Amino acid sequence: MTPVALTIAGSDPSGGAGIQADLKTFHQFGVYGEAAITLLTVQNTLGVVRVECVPAPLVIEQVRAAIGDIPPQAAKTGALGSLEIVEALSELAEEFDFPLVVDPVMAGSDGAPLLSPDARWAIATRLLPRAFLVMPNLDEAAALTGIEVKDVAAMREAAARLCAMGARAALVKGGHLEAAATDVLYADGAWHEFTAPRIETRHTHGTGCTYSAAVTAGLARGSPLEEAVSRAKTYITNAIRTAPGLGRGRGPLNHHA
């Protein structure tokens, strides 16, 4: 049986992030990809200049159409944009019989906002309790938990808090740490760390999207969570290391890694 994964996220016309990155990653892992678009962006490697959210009912119709015909074995969220989308998706997710990976995207690589301030509260209170796994970076973990997250000890504290807020598991990503890129996973009361050497490069556009898509693909293939994260960590590291060098700004990764 062909494994299937669904991404519920925004569109990046330059192809490096959002649903475009997710679908490329699913394909690389041998997973059939479906996509429901939450927002449209005008962006490239130089930054985001415009964001337009899709009406929440249309987002939900897309998701229902996908899962009603080709049910996924796992799904992920990316940039959700508005409070209305977060609330509607949180309600629909109560019906999901597959794991949901929540990548709480709040801003693009250039810092441009991709989530309204009121929607952050809805992710923390409404969507997290539906999440099989939540995957924030340091800034997102701080925004969701209210604590400063700048080292591994704080990452552990944030992961524990995110699970106390309702997520079954939390993976706090340390790509912005000054030292090695260490990610902290808290699941079923156990701690796991995944470390890779820091790669000095400006070509990191879509890293978070690609990483969460790789984890989702692993879950869709039936891998245990720790194994899915470990393989995704290796993939994202190689994708950064072998980035094709495209664009005049923060270039995309090598999704063929």
Summarize the structure in words:
With 257 residues, the protein is α/β, with parallel strands linked by helices. It has a single domain (4-241), classed as UDP-N-acetylmuramoyl-L-alanine:D-glutamate ligase. It is 39% helix and 21% strand. It has helices at residues 18-28, 56-69, 83-93, 117-127, 138-145, 152-164, 207-220, 225-241; strands at residues 4-11, 32-44, 47-53, 74-77, 100-102, 133-134, 169-172, 181-187, 190-196. The strands form two sheets. It has a six-stranded mixed beta sheet. The radius of gyration is 16 Å and the shape is globular. The mean pLDDT is 95.
Chart the SSEs and their pairings.
Layout: E1 4-11, H1 18-28, E2 32-44, E3 47-53, H2 56-69, E4 74-77, H3 83-93, E5 100-102, H4 117-127, E6 133-134, H5 138-145, H6 152-164, E7 169-172, E8 181-187, E9 190-196, H7 207-220, H8 225-241
Parallel strand pairs: 1-2, 1-4, 4-5, 5-6
Antiparallel strand pairs: 2-3, 7-8, 8-9
Keywords:
21% strand; three-stranded antiparallel sheet; 9 strands; alpha/beta; UDP-N-acetylmuramoyl-L-alanine:D-glutamate ligase; single chain; six-stranded mixed sheet
